[in-house]
Every structure is written in C-alpha cells, then in structure tokens.
C-alpha cells in the first residue's frame, strides 16, 4: 500500500515514530509494525521501559517447574517508578529530535509514561498517538479507569496473581500450564491472533508490571501535554479495555483539554493489533 493522499513521502522521510509498549511486553512487540513502517518509508524506534523487555529481571521461580513463589515473592521490579519510565521515553525523544517530525506512539499501560514524558518536554513531540492506551488527562491513574463502570465488561481480572501491593507489581503467569488460564490470556489480549503465533507471543511476556505504572497519579496541563496534537486509535473488539472505556478517556481528555481535541480512528480487532494486524496498524499510524 502507498501512504494516504494526506501523507506525502517527504512527510514520512522526515518523521520518526517513537513506540512505547504496554504491560508485560517490550520493544519487541513493535517489530512487525516497524517492518511495515520501514516499507512505507517511515523511521521508527521502540523503547524498552525499565523492567521490561528481554533484559527484565524475573521472579526467581518464573522459569522453574510450577514457578515456586509466584504468588508471594516480591517483584524484582517493585522499585521501578513512573519517573524512571518517563525518563526512558524522554531519553529516546531527545536522541531522535533531529528529525523534523517526532510522533510518539503508546499502547495500553504505556500511555502513562508516554504522557508524562510529553508533559515534561512537549517541545520534543509533534503528535502523540494512543493505541487503546491509557490517557491520564481526565483521571490521573490507570487504576482510576480500570474501576470505571465503562470498563465493567473488561476481561482479564482473573489473570492477576497474588496481592499487587505486597508484590510491588501486577503479576500474571504467561507460562501457565493451565489451559483455562492460557485461554483467558488469549481471549483477553490476543483473541484474533492465530493460536500458534499466540503461543510464541505469550512465551516472550514477562510476568510483572511494576505497580507504579498503573498506580502513580500523573498530572497533565493544557500548556504542555494539552497543546500537542493527538490521535486515539480505538480497537473495536478490545476485550482488555472495552471501547466504552476508550471513549471515556477520549471524552474526558477533550473536556479538560479542549484546545487540541483527539482525532479518533478505529481499527478492527483486539487489544493487540501489533500481533494480529501489524500492516493495518502501521498504515493507520502513517495516516
């Protein structure tokens, strides 16, 4: 596919996409999307948030049979802060600023660190795109939206293990031998990804999301974050974050920061378009 009539090759050649992953993932989540972006003429770089990716520290029993301590062992990522995560995004934004246009893209829980980074250095971001991602403009914590009535149909609550406060993390078990648990993980995040590919995806997930990411309040201002043009890519069949919850975040952000309202577009499928349809996701980003 060629770029949209509204996106010239010159625009793409002078644009870099900075990609921020969601919970339990890493920069690898974007690899297939990045290949399509490159084919369309767009540069991109994917960020590993602290405590994520292939270098993440794991609970000591995660790779052992029956994963001893899974319910009780404090996370090695418990001390990761929201500031740490925003700093990782800012570091990448500063490095790529030589491009004429920088587009910051966040998925899911990555919306928190990306938003805070954009708030702290709005001059480094020309547009911010949320892919079914947390937008802290109306409510300051991701947890505030997870408990909203609009999110009542969300799946995945049964995936969380142990006490997040005691663990210092929201923990899942991507290597679970329990078929019902694995199926719930698939149905929540990857229901439209072929089963064989899903098995590969889940084997790369880490078990811990540092608690700071969904629990730390973020303050955004009209003078900084609110002046950045923004787009929300809704995922129409999202079971992890239903469209009603996505629309609530959009509406509250536009209410509180009306000067640059969201441009809203809708993608078909699940919470994980980077796994199920990376070409459609990349084409939506370049538009």
UniProtKB/TrEMBL annotation:
Coiled coil: none annotated. InterPro entries: AB_hydrolase_1 (IPR000073), AB_hydrolase_fold (IPR029058), Sec-Metab_Biosynth_Hydrolase (IPR052897). Pfam families: Abhydrolase_6. GO terms for molecular function: catalytic activity. It comes from Haloactinomyces albus. Residues 17-284 form the AB hydrolase-1 domain. This is Pimeloyl-ACP methyl ester carboxylesterase.
